[in-house]
Amino acid sequence: MSKDQGARVLIVDDEKGIRSFLRVSLSSRGYTVFEAATGLDAMEKSATAHPDVIILDLGLPDIDGLDVILEIRKRAKTPIIILSVREDTQDKVEALEAGADDYLVKPFNIAELQARLKAVLRRFAPTDMVGDVLRAGDLEMDISAHRVTAGEKEFDLTPTEFDVLKLLMSNAGRVVTHKQILQAIWNKPEDLEGSLHLLRVTMSNLRGKVETRPDWPTRIITEPGIGYRLRS
Predict the structure, then answer these.
(1) Residues 163-171: what's their mean pLDDT?
(2) Which residues pair with 80 in a beta bridge?
């Protein structure tokens, strides 16, 4: 049985049809499923059912989904996948910066949702870090030695490139927004003139070192208008 089978999933959506479809689809694949139709119910069940992952709609009848994320994040790090009809980039950015871990737009493909579930469950398994060594995919980072390798190959990174990669590896599989990177690495807001250009240049240089083909990256993936994701 794979690691994700048996995981506890809380589905939060005011549409009974969506909840029923997800319950049947996920239960048939070994997940234990709980349901909530409102934001208040979601917050209560997130505390009592102890889900391993939450699938959350933003358009709830009582509380906006963004507020539900913020409330849950006050007391839990449970991974949250947004499943919403809101498809604007700004909606995605706001949800991710509020604490969501992934975002999928309705109508959705159940196979893609299952893949996203597996990805967040892998990432939120006990962190693949021993001492000062961080691993994500084939990348290995020795933090104290300031050393990054993939197999037998070692990458010569600048301190800034190292810090950016460390942030991405610490959040492997998750979208890290432009704003989150700029604040963590440079303490700069996203809307500061030149900030995004600085980030893009740094990311281009980093990809030039850790990607086999920087023009076709397979490790550091761009989420257009939002940020970057390191494949785990």
Answers:
(1) 92
(2) 54
pLDDT above 50 for 1: no
Quickly tell me which residue has 């599989």 as its tokens.
173
Output the furthest CA–CA distance in the chain (Å, rounded): 54
- For the chain, residues classed under CATH 1.10.10.10 are 129-230
Fold observed for domain 129-230: Arc Repressor Mutant, subunit A (1.10.10)
Residue whose pair of structure tokens reads 């358009």 in the numeric block: 59
Binned at pLDDT 50, 70 and 90, residue 76 comes out as: confident
CA atoms within 13 Å, Cβ hemisphere of 138: 11
Where in the chain do CATH 3.40.50.2300 domains reside? 8-123
76: which 2 tokens?
């839990």
Q: What is the mean pLDDT of residues 69-94?
A: 91
Distances (CA, A) of 4 to 45, 170, 199, 212: 20, 20, 35, 31
Decide if 59 contacts 17 (C-beta within 8 A). Answer: no
Report the alpha-carbon angle 76-78-80, nearest 5: 125
CATH class of 8-123: alpha beta
Which phi and psi angles does 67 have, rounded to 5°?
A: -70, -35
When mean pLDDT is compared across 7-16, 91-100, 113-122, the lowest value belongs to 113-122
